[in-house]
Amino acid sequence: QVQLVESGGGLVQAGGSLRLSCAASGRSFSSYAMGWFRQAPEKEREIVAAISRSGNNTYYADSVKGRFTISRDNAKNTVYLQMNRLKPEDTAVYYCAADYKYWGQGTQVTVSS
């Protein structure tokens, strides 16, 4: 089992940037595929980006391609989400997940217009 703690959320103006971090406990972080998800008010949770165990393969939702970058540092048990050119529609609670079955508590991202 792994425990996940997100950080880095906040309030930013449209066009700005934020970097989310997700720190994992346990010794098997490199054995998990990791993903970032988000859930806006009254909307279903959706995947934003995912990264393979080695970090060699990534996936992005069409809505964030070219603006967001997912990365991981297995030595630090951490996965990151660099978010650039943020838009008001990116406003949501952002969650990280390990193997899509272990979840963090989420961090709020609010983008003002």
Give a verbal description of the structure.
- The chain has 113 residues and is an all-beta fold.
- It contains no helices and eleven strands.
- It has strands spanning 4-7, 10-13, 18-24, 34-39, 46-51, 58-60, 68-73, 78-83, 92-98, 102-103, 107-112.
- Strands 2, 4, 5, 6, 9, 10 and 11 form a seven-stranded mixed β-sheet that branches. Strands 1-3-8-7 form a four-stranded antiparallel β-sheet, with no helix packed on it.
Total helical segments? 0
Cα end-to-end separation: 40 Å
Radius of gyration of CA atoms, rounded to a whole number: 13 Å
Whole-number mean pLDDT: 96
How helical, in percent, are the residues? Answer: under 10%
Which H/E pattern describes the elements?
EEEEEEEEEEE
% residues in beta strands: over 45%
How many E-type strands?
11
Biggest pleated-sheet summary: 7 strands, mixed
Uncertain ranges: none
Overall geometry comes to: globular
How would you summarize the topology of this molecule?
Layout: E1 4-7, E2 10-13, E3 18-24, E4 34-39, E5 46-51, E6 58-60, E7 68-73, E8 78-83, E9 92-98, E10 102-103, E11 107-112
Parallel strand pairs: 2-11
Antiparallel strand pairs: 1-3, 3-8, 4-5, 4-9, 5-6, 7-8, 9-10, 9-11
